[in-house]
Specification:
25% of the residues lie in helices and 26% in strands. It is of the alpha/beta class and 349 residues long.
Length: 349
């Protein structure tokens, strides 16, 4: 049965690759949810899970026409207190930068800043090491897809990328974590400044379709068990609520009609919502698997995220985005989640 499963899977991948290669209007974005328990070796998370995600992306970049990779933040678990976690993360993520066929400077990517990436935890603008060293301004400066950072800050926690795929130009704006916690107040002045910077970018690149990435964006759909359980269908009557920072971001960017998609993690689980404002639809997507458990789903069965990741395949001629959620076992073998929170399609624009 197992051999039949993987044989069927191989045929499926062959068809997907053929479709992507033969359809000039089709490309893919790979999405990596919170990896903090892989780099911290916590809750049964392992670096092998992280490595297999990167292996799959590199091994399928050309066949799936992967144009960009998004990391949703919480790269590590202990901020700058345990630098070994950053070393582990960089040893894996930086593999995306190695030239491969069709990608002379590697596969373009960007990394959001999560609350666990900062020290003290959740404090915006305070990082001095860790993220700034391995994913900051100096690291990305000179890469063709890297647009720049807010106020040219070395932390680069608010930054943007530019890429083009299948005849369409895009801008990806990463907004760093800035939200009230039990110990910290939100930095209102910084939020205002970052929003002004974001607005200038969205005006300057008004002809590019815009994707906003923020670690804290969307809550899990009420009643959904996707935080801990796999393959659980949920059809809710109410759309999920925004997180406080997500709500602030949406209320700002909704006035820019080139913004069509927002991505976030932080809250374990899956959810999706669509908001219509002045004729423009903004789709918001949550994906985070750090609280997942393996059978029999008891308190001791946490798997650190289990290696789950996503692809978002953009079919421009048909104006569709196809979302797939899976665990890569190798570059050619994956295990899919097929419930309606994990595998779904929505209108692109």
């Amino acid at each position: 049965m197992k051999k039949l499963f993987f044989a069927t899977l191989s045929v499926f991948f062959f068809l997907i690759r053929a479709f992507a290669q033969e359809s000039p209007g089709v490309f893919t974005i790979a999405v990596l949810p919170d990896t903090q328990y892989y780099t911290a070796l916590k809750h049964n998370g392992t670096m092998d899970m992280f490595q297999r995600q990167i292996d799959w992306i590199i091994g399928n970049a050309k066949s799936n026409n992967i144009a960009y990779v998004v990391h949703l933040g919480d790269v590590v678990d202990h901020g700058e207190d345990k630098m070994k976690e950053w070393e582990r993360a960089a040893s894996v993520m930086h593999q995306l930068e190695k030239p491969i066929e069709g990608y002379p400077e590697g596969i373009p990517y960007g990394v959001a800043v999560g609350n666990h990436d900062t020290s003290p935890m959740g404090t915006p603008g305070a990082m001095k090491d860790g993220y700034p060293r391995y994913f900051g301004l100096n690291h990305f400066k000179g890469k063709s897809y890297y647009g720049g950072a807010f106020k040219d800050q070395q932390t680069s926690e608010n930054h943007y990328s530019l890429f083009s795929a299948s005849g369409q130009d895009f801008i990806v704006v990463f907004i760093g974590y800035n939200e009230k916690t039990t110990k910290l107040e939100k930095n209102e002045d910084l939020e205002d400044e970052v929003f002004k910077w974001t607005g200038k970018l969205l005006k300057k690149y008004k002809d590019r379709k815009a994707i906003i990435v923020s670690h804290s964006l969307l809550r899990r759909t009420e009643g959904s068990e996707s935080a801990t359980l796999p393959n659980v269908d949920y059809v809710g009557k109410e759309k999920p609520n925004f997180m406080p920072q997500g709500k602030s971001i949406y209320n700002f960017v909704k006035d820019y009609n080139n913004v069509f998609l927002m991505l976030g993690g932080h809250i374990s689980g899956e959810s999706f919502r669509v908001d219509l404002y002045k004729g423009n639809k903004i789709k918001s997507v949550l994906s985070d698997y750090q609280s997942r458990r393996d059978a029999p789903y008891g308190d001791s069965d946490r798997n650190g995220g289990g290696g789950l990741m996503r692809t978002m395949t953009f079919d421009i001629p048909n104006n569709k985005v196809h979302v797939k959620t899976f665990v890569p076992k190798s570059a050619t073998e994956v295990i899919y989640e097929t419930d309606n929170d994990s595998e779904f399609t929505f209108d692109m624009f």
